[in-house]
Amino acid sequence: METEHDVLVVGAGCAGMRAAIEAHDAGADVALLSKIHPVRSHSGAAEGGINAALGNASEDDPEKHAFDTVKGSDYLGDQDAIQILCDEAPGDVYELEHWGAVFSRTEDGRIAQRPFGAAGEPRTAYAADITGHVLVHVLYEQVMKREIPAYEEWFAWKLVEDDGRCQGVIAWDIVNGGLKTIGAKTVILATGGAGRLYTGTTNAYSCTGDGMAMALRMGVPLKDMEMMQFHPTTLSPTGVLITEGCRGEGAYLLNSEGERFLKDYAPNAMELASRDVISRAEQTEIDEGRGVDGNVLLDLRHLGAEKILERLHGTRELSMVFAGVDPIHDPIPVRPGAHYHMGGVETDLWGKTTLEGLYAAGECACVSVHGANRLGGNALMETITFGKRAGAAAAEWALTHTTVAVPESVVSETERELEELLGRDDGERPHAIRDEMAETMHVNFGVFRREDQMREQGEIIERLRERYERVVVEDKGSLFNNDVTQALELGFLLELAACMIEAGLARKESRGAHARPHDFPDRDDGNYMRHTLVHWQDGTPVLDWEPVRTTKWQPQERTY
Ligand SMILES: Cc1cc2nc3c(=O)[nH]c(=O)nc-3n(C[C@H](O)[C@H](O)[C@H](O)COP(=O)(O)OP(=O)(O)OC[C@H]3O[C@@H](n4cnc5c(N)ncnc54)[C@H](O)[C@@H]3O)c2cc1C
To answer: pLDDT averaged over the chain?
Structure first.
């Protein structure tokens, strides 16, 4: 064992850093481990903002926030978790402000709040359109101030279990090469999402679902894995995100006939309906021939140059650089793209998983506050509120238990596995398998889902997993060997894809992001007010169910 800590946080985005800060302040010896530099985590790409019922732009309260979130989740969110998120959000946002987060302001100097999709009130606090960038820097300052050590550019590959407890992590040291073992009384997974399962995703290259897959391999169930959110405005053709803040500021969505087509789908909320509703509307327009080269158009022109330059500066730059379009003068071509995983490692309200000593928070976890559809602005809030809670709980456990043991056999087994991977010369490099996975997931497990396509995708993934068995890592060196980490990431992604399909086939209804217009067009509360749980057994996914935790909101029809 190279080193040992009370709490080891794997992942240094908003969730990981917030967890580490809390664990440190609770008195634990804590360290962060991240495959990329903390401030380059995908959290830094968040644009539009973070939701808290501060009531600065209207009469708002946590209760309204909770109801919007429950309804937005299509009644699959766990209501006790949602209540915690919404109650704790205002305090958690003010704490970020006091740490130095430069939120945009109202005229009288309070934190400004913009309207976001499916929110009854303007509730999204923001720092122009670089909110995530601001938050990761503020959190990183707090991490540095506390001198919390960070294993930067270490790639976590395996969790260590001994005596029924998670007791550490085995990682590949990207900078120097070699496997390193870190013992820990508790481990918090904060490894983010898995958008790289799809082509045309808003997610960074690092979003490969590593933590979910690591937990899965330890027998921990993944919850609601069929629920992948498609964001309605991703820039064509790259998939770069165009923030919902544009529609919050008043942008229109137009079809090829220049019509605001949402009048036919969400006549009241229009462009501010929830993401699943708008993605389906766009896809329908495109499929029925009213698209523009496979896209629809996001029109900001009527907002005027001044507002665009002040509030949506980054969006304008992204559009100009990646699509050659200046939104002051022309509409932006957009389409739905894979954006956010509502599913993830099942946890309780304190981030605890079913494996003693293992916690999860942020996008890799499923507590579940987003259910079948996440509201824009709620993901950043979840990373903070539940990151903090996981940090507190993991520290408390660590401080009341003493021993850490990493069995030699686990380390030698991992070394043997790595030797085998690097020793293989005959086979296929990972990229072709990765591209085929991402392209077929997009076609067969996208905005709309059909039984036959999901089955076909299951077979495709099985074949890709067989090919993966013979994958070759060409770079055998130790310094910055991204070849080896990319191969490991692909292994993680393929297992997650298998879990998603298993869960998707089992959910014979349409709810939130899981839309089956051809065979099960309606939500079926009688049979499916429950979460899918997928375990990993002998190399295959095994399905189970768990009821939704409801408190005071009974399911209603969901219209916008
Ligand atoms: C473009 C974009 C814009 C968004 N905008 C918003 C928004 O405006 N509002 C909102 O609420 N949400 C938004 N979201 C969603 C939200 O930003 C994310 O869900 C959230 O930031 C995820 O934070 P996280 O801490 O869980 O993970 P991440 O920030 O993704 O961090 C993951 C961390 O895990 C580490 N890691 C992963 N695997 C390993 C491994 N094997 N070994 C070691 N380290 C590992 C990475 O290095 C990284 O540090 C947006 C998402 C995207 C993609």
So the answer is: 96
Q: Looking at the annotation, which residues are catalytic? A: 275
Long-range interactions of 482-489: CB distance < 8 A, separation 24+: 482/174, 484/172, 484/418, 484/421, 484/422, 485/35, 485/155, 485/172, 485/174, 486/430, 486/434, 487/421, 487/430, 488/155, 488/157, 488/172, 488/210, 489/196, 489/208, 489/210
Decide: residue 400, CB within 10 A, 0-12 exposed, 13-18 middle, 19+ buried. exposed
Domain hosting residue 296, numbered range: 233-336
Q: What is the pLDDT of residues 6-21, one digit of tens each?
A: 999 999 999 999 999 9
To test ligand 1's pocket by mutation, which of 370, 380, 490 has the most ligand atoms within 8 angstroms of CB?
380
Peptide bond before 555: cis, by omega within 30 degrees of 0?
no
242 in a structural domain: yes
Is there a single domain that holds both residue 311 and residue 412? no
**Mutation test residue for ligand 1: of 21, 42, 151, the one with most atoms within 8 Å of CB:** 42
| Joined tokens for residue 207 | 């979003």
Full-model pTM: 0.97
Q: Is there a contact between 196 and 441 (Cβ–Cβ < 8 Å)?
A: no
Sign of CA dihedral 481, 484, 487, 492: negative
Q: How many domains are contained in the chain?
A: 2
Q: Computed from CA positions of residues 143, 149, 153, 157, in that sequence, does the dihedral angle turn out positive or negative?
A: negative
